Amino acid sequence: MSEVYAARRARLHDQCTAAGSAAALVSRPANVRYLCGAVPPGAVLLLGPVQDVLVAAEVPSAPPLPSAPPRAEEPRLLVLPGAEGDPAAAAADLAAADGAESLAVEEHDLTVARHRALGAAAPRIRLADLGRAVEQLRIVKDDEEISCMRIAGELADQALGELLESILVGRTERHLALELERRLVDHGADGPAFPTVVAAGPNAGRPGHLPTDRRVEEGDFLTIRLGADYRGYRCQVGRTFVVGPSPADWQVELYDVVFAAQRAGREALLPGRACRDVDRVTRQVLDAAGYGDALEPRTGHGVGLEIDEDPRLSPSAMGKLDACVPVTVEPGVHLPGRGGVRIDDTLVVRPEADGGPELLTITTKELLAL
Predict the structure, then answer these.
(1) What are the residue boundaries of the Peptidase M24 domain, all occurrences included (predicted)?
(2) How far apart are CA 169 and CA 184, in angstroms?
């Protein structure tokens, strides 16, 4: 993998040089990991005019970090003595010492205080904005990245499937969420990809719901959204079920509409398709059924080292989909006081010649009565 990381850094070097910056400072944790692999917490990467340096603060009680890289193409590792030093400020000072006249930084990741600290550490360097250059490089995934996401999807499906075989009535949303996260880790995930959502009854389908002590009752809609983190890569799945012997007519009707919308969005995931068109075809189904006022601002987003990445699938989204881009399609409708439905999948954009979108989360989307 070291060659892969070296190639990624070389691409970023080329972009910075073309933009007029001989050095760049990458501070966003997911971006540092993308360019270097697993790194110490809080580490930053300096792409310098002379050398690339991974700067990390010393972590108390942690095993010592190697002072030199195992291969020449990897960045040199610099560990600051003590836990109080700011790796970003130290990196800016290194860039100045190597003769850099400008330093491109990730302004969207820096606080005002940290940006000022960089200027104080290297007052003769002009600070420029790197923008979201690394995030743009991250959009299209390679085979190894997709393989990790595929495993993350399998782990999430497995944890969800096991939970559905257990008794649910009488258990709280919070208890079920904790059990799902434990199952993820038991099966080999590094942890949950995001805080697990369990929403029952009137909470079902509610966007951004956090699990409460509300107990699951017969007749409830039950929405579960979870994701696994495997080797840094994330994948999410969301399903809605009915608790009890059979769903009510209104539950079947609402579920069928959301399922149809989600299917329309999935089928639109083809290379060259405008991102806003994927949102549009998903939204049209729900709007035609009278649920336009209940729609969320977007129907999906990219996923990878972070659970929410570019591209965005929204009415105002710019750009088109590329092959090998993992995205979610996750429409939902919440009816206040009654509950609602969400259906989430993670898919990889593939051309029709290769079979179309690759589904990474395969838990059934049939409306199950549990």
Answers:
(1) 148-350
(2) 22
Give me the torsion for CA of 175, 181, 186, 188, rounded to 10°. Answer: 170
Structure tokens at 11: 């691409």
35-48 as b/e: b if 16+ CB within 10 A: bbeebbebbbbbbb
CB 90, CB 45: distance < 8 Å: no
Contacts for 257 with CB less than 8 Å, ≥ 6 apart: 285, 286, 289, 291, 333
Give pLDDT, residue 58. Answer: 73
* Token pair recorded at residue 180: 């799902």
Q: 354 CB contacts (<8 Å, ≥6 apart)?
A: none
Q: Is residue 78 classed exposed, middle or buried when 0-12, 13-18 and 19+ CB atoms within 10 A define those classes?
A: middle
Count CB atoms within 10 A of the CB of residue 359.
Answer: 13
Q: Are strands 52-57 and 44-47 parallel, antiparallel or unpaired?
A: antiparallel
Q: Are 235 and 228 in contact (CB under 8 A)?
A: yes
Whole-angstrom Cα distance, residue 265 to residue 284? 10
| pLDDT tens by residue, 148-196 | 999 999 999 999 999 999 999 999 999 999 999 999 999 999 999 999 9
